[in-house]
Amino acid sequence: MSIIVKDLVHIYNPKSPFESKALDGVSLEIEKGEFIGLIGHTGSGKSTLIQHLNGLLKPSSGSIEVNGLDITAPGVNLTNVRKKVGLVFQYPEYQLFEETVQKDIAFGPANLGMSEEEIGERVKEAMEIVGLDYEALKDRSPFELSGGQRRRVAIAGVIAMKPEVLILDEPTAGLDPRGRDEIFSQIKALHKKIRDDYNSGISQHGGYGQACRPDNSNEQGECGNSRNPKRSVQVRKQAQGNRSGSPFRARACQQAERKRL
User: How many CB atoms lie within 10 A of CB 260?
Assistant: First the structure.
């Protein structure tokens, strides 16, 4: 599945005293099987951009194609799009609500009308993918777990839906170094499994130097451990309120890996 963004513009509170342009002419293409890292300073429009990719936000102008379907066109069934493009929000553990880990992960598949047997299989598989022991944790309250474990439960809830594209909004925000490293290891393993088993893509957003290194990090412009990434793109927009007023640049790399600055 590919995602193509063309000349995307998003304006908050248009035609009001509080009008703010968050995205200005963003264009990019994410190909099937890629692992992408999107990096930028606070307020640069990263979360705004990714919330367009499964139709949570409508652009002021521009287009977004998901597997050849223009999801910005009138009358598009966004429910079907969201089944294919899964989005894990920042601090996803705050969205846990069920009594047990098993019930929380099963919530999405259950709402797709699946059988109990299939739901159980998906829950087990999702927990295995994110490194959670099914037998040990399935009947525990998610609120009894550590911060890193709760975040993995939340990610497993989206994985259980088996999306073709997985987008994570700053998946390590607020975690300690150990929890951060565990999450990045699981994301890397998850990308490999999804790519090999389902031939699908994962888009990982955020990380600030852990998953993907910015252009000016060193003379090679490294992204993770890849000195010669197979493909990279520049996403440009005019920064709003930027001290220098220069264009904001986000580097996207196919083989983004955790690497400490």
Answer: 8
